[in-house]
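user: Kindly work through both lines:
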Amino acid sequence: MEPQHRLMLLSGIIAAVCGLLAGFLGSRLAGPPLPEMSAVARSGRFQLVDRDGRERGRLEVDQHGVARLSLCGQDVALPLVSLAADPHLGARLELDDQRQGAVVLHAAPQGARSIALYQEGRLRLGLEVQKNGDAAVNFYDKGNRIITLGLNHQDDPHLVFYGAGQKPALDMVSKKNGDRNLQLFGKDGTPRLVLGLKHDNKAALGLFDRQGKTRAALLDEPALILLKRGKLVRTLP
């Protein structure tokens, strides 16, 4: 065999050996093939644990059909965050600081929305929008509502103070058309006095008996109206 042919044959053998060696090393270095990932994981409950095996979170659907996500702190058994989707009560998010303070956001299926702030386990402040569009900020003392500052669905502002049993004690309204009035209530929530001013500057003062029926009215014209048990007794010009 001629030297040139021998050189070509030797070069081919070397190339083939290098190719086999590269393929072998490539398969070793690449490792085993990755398993095919499933597109959907299905379960009624998922549990999240830390490195010490303690439960830190849970995602589940309970027996009532409520889907809930709960997250716990490192040294706390009760959840710090709770997110629930209830088919009947709507969506609810609770943020708890474990010192009896919490923030609760709630969206009801009928359209009402609210944000509630708790301190020492008692409701202190609430922000709400009712399904009819009424919006209000409510202040609480020992869990009882004492003040409401709000807007009705016609965007008329009003302020209400509450007495014992959360019954209205004082109510002030200022309407967009210029009408303004102030109402005072008895301990049982029955109106006892109304002071009003119309947009045309006509003023009125009304007094009511313990049953809420008009007893006297002071107006521009007639000047005075007296009633008893809802029946007219006398008028003065």
Q: What stands out?
A: The first strand starts at residue 45 and ends at 49.
